[in-house]
Specification:
387 residues; Alpha-Beta Plaits; 2 domains; two-stranded antiparallel ribbon; binds iron/sulfur cluster
């Protein structure tokens, strides 16, 4: 069964405020019946407030609109993000005076307030859901869409998966990529050859393992699967294998599922703003040029449908290679544009596939444009003499 995803295009027909994205967000909130659903609810608006000098996160004018809608409906809203991003959030415009509600660290100021959920997966046994997330009675998952070096897409699932867990669990999720062995040092006993393998990577993705001298450590985030190292490493000694890349995406689906399971049916909704889409996550503490044209804003009660629609709307866009930092490269032009810059094993659709297998929602969706861009019929252009 297909699920409705409400969509407001970044394009306008007329030069009028009523056709801008904040105005279309209001229309989406109407279609989601948000005001009617929040009375007496403690509403957590989970968003990524960025870090340091980041300026491509969700502009406060959008956040204010969501906060106001919750207040209008009689709910008690607060914005939440991980501790280290909330520190300094006011410097990026997310202050109570501007957005209309408080901004709290999801697991308290010391990242110590959480609930434990047991679910074995690779190196993880316990998932620690941030206390303020689990205590809230209604969730608004408000995401800025961008690329991500670990999984291709920084979208709605990742906003939940990483942002609703304490730092210890977030670290363990990244470590799932290291769980399956990829370095077989016994096949490369020569230290000089090992050094050449490390030097062969132009992205500094391979380093000596500090904890296990003689072993190699692969930084998944930096690896775009270009294969240069495999030309140098003795046969069989190094694997650049999808299993190590997929692990993080599966961990994200599991994590998001655990968080969503703490909310009752009908007590969650998801919004994604697909503008200023940069190559990396907003937690990197800086903003680069956008690498895709702005798409617009989307909303749905189904996180999988929303994510699928977001990816489908961005999949066919032209990758603005002229805006890429020169340290990034495109060596494979197949797949989604985010995949083209982060590598073929970072397929942004993977996390949705894992989410579907876990029953988190529906990938089938009906896109409902809340204000379709009109094509304007005009007569042929006449002749005006040049002055
Ligand atoms: S595949 Fe390319 S980016 Fe990845 S570790 Fe090897 S050389 Fe580095």
């Amino acid at each position: 069964m297909s699920v409705q995803v409400f969509y407001g295009s970044a394009r306008q027909t007329r030069l009028d405020a009523s056709e801008t994205l904040p105005a279309k967000l209001d229309l989406i909130l109407d279609r989601l019946h948000l005001r009617e659903r929040v009375k007496d609810e403690t509403v957590v608006i989970k968003m990524h407030t960025g870090n340091n000098l980041n300026y491509s996160t969700i502009p406060p004018v959008f956040v204010r609109k969501v906060v106001q809608a919750v207040k209008d409906g009689g709910g008690k809203p607060f914005v939440a993000d991980v501790t280290w991003d909330v520190e300094g959030a006011d410097l990026r415009g997310y202050s109570p005076q501007v957005i209309g509600c408080p901004v709290y660290p999801v697991a308290g100021p010391h990242d110590k307030y959480f609930y434990v959920h047991e679910r074995p997966f690779k190196n993880i046994r316990e998932w620690k859901v941030a206390g303020l997330i689990e205590d809230a009675s209604l969730l608004i998952n408000f995401t800025h869409v961008k690329g991500h070096p670990s999984c291709g897409l920084g979208g709605a699932i990742k906003n939940l998966a990483l942002g609703c867990m304490v730092g210890e669990t977030r670290g363990a999720m990244h470590d799932t990529c290291q769980f399956d062995r990829y370095w077989f040092g016994e096949l490369c006993p020569d230290p000089a050859t090992r050094a050449r393998v490390i030097e062969s990577c132009p992205h500094a993705a391979l380093v000596e393992d500090k904890q296990h001298p003689g072993e190699l450590h692969l930084h998944i985030e930096q690896c775009n699967q270009c294969g240069r190292c495999l030309r140098v490493a003795p046969p069989g000694s190094l694997r650049i294998d999808p299993v190590n890349f997929d692990a993080f995406q599966e961990a994200c689906a599991i994590s998001a599922g655990i968080t969503l399971s703490t909310f009752a049916a009908g007590k969650m909704t998801h919004l994604s703003l697909a503008t200023n889409m940069t190559p990396l996550c907003d937690c990197f503490g800086f903003t680069t040029l956008a690498i895709l044209p702005d798409v617009g804003i989307l909303g749905s009660d189904d996180v999988l449908a929303l994510e699928q629609a977001t990816l489908d709307l961005t999949a066919g866009l032209r990758l603005m290679e002229e805006n890429l930092p020169s340290s990034l490269e495109v060596h494979d032009r197949r797949g989604h544009p985010f995949q083209q810059i982060h590598g073929p094993f970072k397929d942004p659709y993977r996390v949705i596939e894992y989410g579907e297998a876990l029953g988190l929602g529906s990938r089938a969706y009906e896109l409902v444009d809340v204000m379709p861009v009109e094509s304007i019929a005009r007569g042929p252009i006449g002749y005006v003499p040049a002055r």
